[in-house]
Amino acid sequence: MEYVENFLIGRQPIFDRQQKVIGYELLYRTEEAPDRASFDNGDKATSQVIINSIMDIGLERLVGQRIAFINLTKCFISGEIELPFEPNQIVLELLEDIEPTEAVIEGLTALKNRGYPIALDDFSYSEQHRPLLDLADIVKLDVMGLEPGELELQVEQLKGRNVKLLAEKVETQEEFQHCFSLGFDYFQGYFLSKPELVTGNRIPTNRMTIINLIIKLQSSDTEIADLEEVIQQDVSLSYRLLRLINSAAFNLGRTVKSIKHAITIVGVKVIRDWARLLLLSQIDNKNPELIWRALFRGKMCESIGTQIDTERADQFFTVGLFSVIDTLLDRPLPELLEKLPLESEIVNALLGEGDGRLAQALNLVDAYDRADWEKVEHSELNSDQIREIYIEAVHDTDQKMRFFNI
Q1: What integer pLDDT is reported at residue 136 of this predicted model?
Q2: Cβ atoms of 176 and 170 closer than 8 Å
Q3: pTM of the complete model
Q4: Which pLDDT band, with edges at 50, 70 and 90, does 214 fall under?
Q5: Which residues contact 299 (CB under 8 A, 6 or more apart)?
Q6: Could you tell me the domains of the chain?
Q7: How far is CA 211 from the centre of its chain?
Q8: Residues 6+ apart with CB under 8 A from 135
Q9: Which range is least confidently modeled, 47-51, 94-98, 201-205, 272-276?
Q10: Interval 133-153: pLDDT, tens
Q11: Is 90 exceeded by the pLDDT of residue 403?
Q12: Taking 70 as the threshold, does the pLDDT of residue 274 lie above it?
């Protein structure tokens, strides 16, 4: 049974010296805490803001032609979680608790070189933070959080640098006038406008559509027409993918009006990368640990496949992913496999009846999972290779789970 899933996102306007709105900061909000940011994982909060604003609501609705300011955590800076949009309508805000380590500076430099504007949130000037200033386009100073005289000192220290100054948490007319006289370029706070709540909703995709599309996406022989046919079976999925492709995330400069056109323009890989996690995240009422396990086993099988059979990495992923499909869908495995267009070698491997390369990879994953080291030692790969594959699979799965807030 389909149901409507509601979500919230906050946005607070940012004004220039003429009190015209130049952009909005997009804020994580929940129905339990609609008036404040309430979360225990910054990566998840940022991921949810990105998915909600780009795929489900759309930047065009949230900010129009203006700029979106989005908080950035370490995983996004390092590239562990890829930013799924172009830099033309986004300012990345570096949170104040992120220290300017070598890795952070390297990551920000890479983002800057790709064209993303960088804002420093709740900034406090110090020699330690000079490397961040060299990369910044906008510096945000917390008017409420600074003691008398500190605001003027911070502004004086930042003068002469090629950055715009943004006064945030401006609560009164007097504070606004004072910041204006100090030469701030932009202003944000309750005096000008409180954050607004934007409500969105989504309809989860049909389960069997999910499974069939995952199969098609993993097959190297899949034609565009095959993908188009599966996607079009589900109105919700078709709508979300078309919204994504037409969003500022891709900045195509043209309207994509059909699924076929979308696949042709951005390529099967892009569709696959977005759809795989999007679809799995919509398998409702399932423990996130099951989703993690499915993705982990898929990734580990795929990595083993690149070592023992380089031509069929996608099929190896499918075997690992589908090895827990019965638990995900609450149906007996043989019954499910009868209804899915899988190759016989994949079916045999999943049923434990095969002895080909796919079965070997899945058996190796099972052996490592059970700590059956004797069986692991007798595989084609040595223990160091398998250990590296395991670590890579854990890292890759954690990254995807964080990004898609599963």
Answers
A1: 95
A2: yes
A3: 0.59
A4: low
A5: 317, 320, 392, 393, 396, 397
A6: 5-199 (3.20.20.450), 204-285 (no CATH), 287-406 (no CATH)
A7: 21
A8: 105, 108, 109, 112, 118
A9: 201-205
A10: 999 999 999 999 888 789 999
A11: no
A12: no
Rounded to whole angstroms, the Cα distance separating 151 from 167 reads 10
Tell me the CB-side half-sphere exposure of residue 5, using CA atoms within 13 A: 15
Token pair, residue 307, equals 């070592």
Residue 193 tokens read as 């406008």
Asked if residue 111 lies in contact with residue 91, where contact means CB atoms within 8 angstroms, the answer is no
Nearest C-alpha neighbor of 150 from the set 178, 120, 189: 178
- Distant-in-sequence, close-in-space partners of 22: CB < 8 Å, separation ≥ 6: 14, 15, 16, 66, 67, 186
* Interatomic CA distance for residues 347 and 354, integer angstroms: 8
Q: Which residue has the tokens 């999925």?
A: 237
For the segment 288-321, what is each residue's pLDDT rounded down to a tens digit? 777 788 888 988 998 998 888 767 766 788 788 8
CA 74, CA 50: separation in Å to the nearest integer?
A: 15
pLDDT of residue 262: 76
Q: List, in order, residues 6 or more apart from 203 with CB less than 8 Å away.
A: 2, 3, 4, 5, 235, 236
DSSP string, 280-336: HTTSTT--HHHHHHHHHHHHHHHHHHHHH-TT-HHHHHHHHHHTTHHHHHTS-HHHH
Tokens of 125: 């000037």
Residues 226, 229: Cα–Cα separation, whole Å: 5
